[in-house]
Known about the structure:
By secondary structure, chain A is mostly beta strands. Chain A has five helices and 23 strands. In chain A, the strands form three sheets. Chain A has a 16-stranded antiparallel β-barrel. In chain A, strands 1-2 form a two-stranded antiparallel ribbon. The longest helix of chain A is centred in the first third of the chain and has 9 residues, at 2-10. Chain A is globular. Chain A starts with a helix and ends with a strand. By secondary structure, chain B is an all-alpha fold. Chain B is built from eleven helices and four strands; from the N terminus they run ααβααααβααααββα. In chain B, a hairpin with a 2-residue loop joins β3 (288-289) and β4 (292-293). Chain B folds into two domains: 23-174, Cytochrome Bc1 Complex, Chain D, domain 2 (Orthogonal Bundle), CATH 1.10.760.10; 186-300, Cytochrome c-like domain (Cytochrome Bc1 Complex, Chain D, domain 2). At the A-B interface, α3 of A face α1 and α3 of B.
Amino acid sequence: MRTVFVAFFLVVTMGMVATQAKAVPVFARKYNTTCFTCHTTPPLLNDFGLRFQANGYQLPGTLEKYAQADQPNFLLGMVAQPMFLYSETKDNLGVTPTTTSTSFSGVEVALFTSASLGSHFSFFTGLPIDYFSGQPTTINVETANLMYTDALNDGTGSLNFRLGEFRFLIPYQHQVLLANQDPLIYTYNPFAGKSVTPANTLSFADPNFGVSAFGMIPGIAEGLRYEVGFSGGTASDIDLKTSKAIFGALNQTVYLNNAPLRFGAFYYGGPQDIAGTTHFPRSFVAPRAGSPGIIDTIAEPDSLVTSGWTNHSSRVGLNLEIVDPWTKRFDFYSQYLMGKDDNIDSAGGGYTATGWFAGMNVIILPEKFYVYGRYDILNVKETDDKKNQIDVGFQYHLLPNAFVTAVYTITNETLPQSATLSAIDQTTTSAGIGIRFGF
Amino acid sequence: MYIQTLTVAAAIGLSGLAWIAHDPLSAHDPILNASSIMVADRSATGNGSSYTDPGAKIIAPEQPASREILARGRKMFLVSCAPCHGADGSGSGPIAVNLLSKPRDLTRGIYMNRSTASGQLPTDYDLYRTITTGLHNTAMPAFRQMAPGDRWAVVQYIKTFSARFNDTTEYPLDVLNVGTEVLPSPQSLATGRNLYLQSQCATCHGLRGQGDGPAAGTLTDDFGNRIWPTDLTNASAFKFGRSNLDIFRIFSTGLNGTPMPSFEQTLSETDRWHLANYVWSLQNTDQYVDGVAADSLAESGDHR
C-alpha cells in the first residue's frame, strides 16, 4: 500500500504551476463552444487554437466590432490547480546530501480576463496567484497587453499589433507547457550561481514587455504564422525606453493529408544591462581526488568585481513539427536553439549554450486521455556544463474543463571536471500529480 | 527614442491603414453582398418567394456564385473552417480526430441542421444559420462576428464540395411550413408525453429524456461515427436551438445522416407541436416530473 501511495506521489508535477496554465475557459463561454475547439488538451493548442491566438484571441476569420450579445457578463476565467509534489536530488558519488521533499500546494489560481473593446481593439490579461506550502502567497500581473487586430481589414487577422506584457508566438510554447517543464535552453541563465542581477532578462519562458506585429497569413502556402517586434525583456520600462532587443519568429505550415507539418525559425537578441551589480564566483562541493571522504568547496576561477556593464544576448532557433498523416494522433516536435552572451563578466568573457529538445504528444482517447514525453539537452561550452532532462506524463479529463495531470521528470547535470576533481553527475527526480479546473 | 517614435507612428497609421484597406467582398458592404445572393435565391424559387418563406419550394439549383465570391469563400474557409473540416471539406481536418462530435463531411452534402424535408439538401440560409449560430455544445463555434458577406461567400464555397447541390434531381427543396404554433399548456404537454412514448422516442432518449434509452449506446451516423442521443433534460445539449420552434423543426425535418427520423409523415402538424412542447418542457424540469404534470404538482401543493 505504501508503494502505491508513493507511486501516486511520484507521478509528476514540479513545474506544474498555474502560472503556466494558459487555458482560458472564458473563451469557451464567450464563443459558446468547448475547450476542444482550440485545445487538443489544455493548454496544448490545436490548429484552430493557433489561428485563434494569431487573430488576437478572436475566432479566425472574424473581426469583433461589437461585444457579443450573449457573451458572459463575467469575462473572467480561472484555472485552479491543487497538486502534490515530490522531489529528490542526489549525485552519483554521494558527496552532496540526498535531499527529498514532498509538498502540497493548496490551490493555485490563475485569473484571466480578455474582451473585445470595440472595432479592432481587444485585451488579454493574466493574473496568477501562487500558493506553495511554506511560501508566501504571490499575486502578479503576468500578462497584460492591448491588441489592435485585423489591421488590413481582410477578415483573416493577417496583421495585428500588440503592446504590453506578452509571451512571444514562438513555436511549441503550448507543447512546452503541456510537458510542464520549460526546456532547459529556455530557462538557461548564464548568470546563474553568480550574484548578478541583470536589469532585464530576454526570456522565452516568461512574458516580455514590448510591442509587436503578429498574425497568420493564410495566403502563403497554407499558413505563415509570424511575430516581429521590439522588447525590453521581462523587466522593461513601460515607456519602452529599454526595449532595445528585437525578436522575430516565422513558422510555415503545410498539410499532408490534412495533417500539419510546420517548420520555422526565430530570433531574440539585444543588449542586457547589468548595471549596479557585483560579480562573485559560483562554487560547488566535490570529493577530493584520492580522498573520497574529504569534501571540498570549489570556487570557479573568477574574481571580477565590477559595478556595471552591458551584455549582448542573442538566441536563435530552428523548429520542426509533424503530425502523423495517417492517424493524426501522434504529434512530434523538435527545436534546436543556440544562445550566445558576449560579455557576462564585464571583461568580454562570453558563454555559448546550445540546446535541443524533441517530444511527442499522443491522443489516446479523444477529449479524454493524452500522454506526452520530451527529451531535452543543454550544453554550455565554456563551463563544460551538460544537462539533460526527460519528462513524461499524462492528462486525463474527468470533464472537458477538469482533468488529472501528472508528470515525472528526471534531470541530470554533469558538473565540470577540474584538475583535481572528478566530474559529478547530479540527478533530480521530481514527480507530482494534480487536478486542474478551468472555469 | 526611435522605438517610441515607431510606436506612435504605427498607432497613427493604423486607422489610416484600416480605412485604406478595402476589399469589396469584405465586411464593408455586407448588406449589399448578402442581398445580391438573396436575389439570386428568390429567382431560384421560381415563384417570387425566398427560401426563408414557410412552405416555399426551391425548384432548381441556384446560379453559380461568381468567381470572386467563391474565391472569397475559399479564403475564409481555409482560415476558419479547414482546421476541422479539412481543406478538402472531407471532415478530416487536423483536429477532427480529437473531437467526439465529428466535423461534417461536406463532400457528401448530408446536413442535419435544415429547414427542408427529410433527406433533402439544406437551403443556403440553413447553412448560413449554422455558420452564424454554431452548434451548441460542440466544437462548432458561432461565427456571428464574421462579416455577413464572408459568411454568405463561405456558404457558396461549401456547396462546391458536393455535386448534389448542382444535381437537378435533388430539387425542388420543400421548405418547412411550421403552420400554426400550439402554445405550451398542461394539456399539450400531456399529449406530447403520450406521443413521446408512442413514437418510440424513449428507445434512444430514455423514458425521462435523459439520453439513456436502451439503444443509446449503439448509435452511429451515416459516416460510421459513434453518436449519442441528446439528453433532453439538459438545455445545454440542444445543438440546433432549444426553443419549441427549433424542436418542432427537428421533428419535421429529421436529422439527415443520423437515426433521428422525420415525423412529418407520421404525425400531424398539431401533434408535432405537442411533442415539441413536451420535449421543450423537459429542459425546464418544473413541467414534468416522473410523468406528473405541472398543474398536478400545483394542485397537490408539492412545490419542491
